[in-house]
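Fold it.
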Amino acid sequence: MYVLGISCYYHDSGAALVKDGALVAAAEEERFNRQKHYSDFPTEAVSYCLRAAGITIDDVDYIGFYEKPLVKFNRIVETILARWPLTYTSWVKSMPIWLMTKLRIGDTIRKELGTDKEVYYCQHHLAHAASAFLVSPFEESAVITADGVGEWTTTGWGTGRGTEIVIEKEIRFPHSVGLLFSAITAYLGFRVNDAEWKVMGLAPYGRPTYVEQFREVVDIRDDGSFRLNMKYFTHTHSTERMFNRRWERLFGRPQRTKETELDAFHQDIAQSGQKIVEEIMVKMAAHVHRQTGMDNVCIAGGVGLNCVANWRILQESGFKNIFIQPAAGDSGAALGTAFYLYNSVLKNPRTFTMHHAYWGPSFTDAEIKRALDATGMAYRYVDREEDLLNETAGMIAEGKVIGWFQGRLEFGPRALGARSLVADARNPQMKDIINAKVKFREAFRPFAPSVLKERAHEYFEMPEGMDAPFMLLVPRVRPEMHAVLPAVTHQDGTGRVQTVTAEHNGRYYRLIRAFAERTGVPVVINTSFNVRGEPIVCTPRDAINTFVKTGIDAVVMGNFIVTEKPNEVDYAAGMRRSIALEAGSLIS
């Protein structure tokens, strides 16, 4: 039995395909069309999933969509009418889209897929809950979901037992922890629904001096429930701004203009806002733990990507175990929809656990060679893996930044050792080098450490053998290791850890082990293989293009090592050949 899950038309669109209860493939559309945070129909992601399974849409038994459009439309109409005529502009902008496309989503999906199959709809936060619990290792667990907004729900909690998920309590629009964090993001001059993690990256540099002002903005109860003070917000009647002049007067400054200097004020706002969000999530989790008495908790929704809050939940709420799947945001709701249909609606037993994030396209050495030849790149083929890894580890130890392109593409916003930039975490200059020469982004942006799982406890304050495969937890770096790992130790002494195992990413594990044999340190920098404003690379051509136009020193793709960059004229001609070649071939 095949079940296809689809998410689109709001945030990052994606698709996931389940066969007989096991995930076959999952991917975001942005990786294929190269438009970051693409939200329209995931045509290429669906096509990839079907190809990965070797089937056509005719072989799919069930198609699921990640929210209920009629319920969402009801919320939008009620919200617009409640604030009329302030909402006239929102009405004019939103109604044509809804009437032409979103209210007819079933017809749209059938047209896009070329099928007459029925489309099933899953409530948005139930899709989030399913995306975490049904692929978790837990037979029973508490479940917490938090994001901007689904249909009406913005935050919810409940329980999962076997294949059944029950949402016990919810908080409804306009009160939203996700929209609160987005307002902070916008106030700091960052792009909403794109740069929320910039706030998390900036926060460690600041002080919580504006916490009391934030308590005026949001009322937090002991059980983690909350209400926004709507006199500071505009998201009920404006699509242009999330907060008003009262917000700016409260904090004492107007909204930062994009690309202007960030100073201590902005750092303090980031720290204070982050602390408030952490407080909400930790209090809520502690309440849920008291109510359920369960040892396990699953978290999903965009707020589930807040790594610092996740770690505090694990440390302070009473739960013993936590699970967050790597695509916790809207693209992952496609995954949840597919599993909810298969397990909860159709009552099939759970047989799958999501141990890793590698569910996207992969490329053979022959395909990589064709891309290299088409673009006119000079390269070396290294037949023995041991030689390939030793040479790569040597380049990393010498201070080079390596584009690492191996195996299947990651699902979710984090590069986890398949499409990664890898560098030496011991080098105190490396963060500035990568930010300036490769990523072309703000100097404060931190980098994450990848570490061999069995040695993670030696470098980070985490239990021996603990799993953190998705870079969604932020333990403290052991004080004696700050000087050893300066490039991945955040300003506050923490690190966004990824534990790596031989079972789930063997070649990346062996690369880190080779680096450890050379240097004594089983930790490397891991950041996404992309440049600012672009999605993570998907194809060999994407990787080559990023290598050529940045300060990356070498690319290791499959068994090929590329260190030389061609001149602009030859490269431009080669890229045209490569585009023509790729257009006529299928991604494996």
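The chain has three domains: 2-135+330-345, 172-323, 365-583.
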